[in-house]
Amino acid sequence: QVQLVESGGGLVQAGGSLRLSCAASGSTFSLLHMGWYRQAPGKQRELVATISNRAMTDYAEFVDGRSTISRNNANNTVYLQMNSLKPDDTAVYYCNAVSEWPTRREFWGQGAQVTVSS
Description:
Layout: E1 2-7, E2 10-13, E3 18-26, E4 31-39, E5 46-52, E6 57-59, E7 67-72, E8 77-82, E9 91-99, E10 105-108, E11 112-117
Parallel strand pairs: 2-11
Antiparallel strand pairs: 1-3, 3-8, 4-5, 4-9, 5-6, 7-8, 9-10, 9-11
């Protein structure tokens, strides 16, 4: 069993910054990919960024260089540094983790609200 706990969400003005953190606990030994997704009201959950245990990263096009994902394998924590935030970034941000052993499994955090005002 793996549990993911997000922190760092909040209310910021356009152009501001936030740093989201996600701490994984439990049976975390086989976690391969970790990342962040977001979901705005009435919309599908969408990828923001992912990072593998070998530090390979992938970003959605809308990130446009404004955010950086990082991972500390020692404490099983993933971070998302978000800069130059826009009102369109307003959403609930969810931490995600994927294990490929012994089978493919996905885990999700409870979500962190990010609200960007004009």
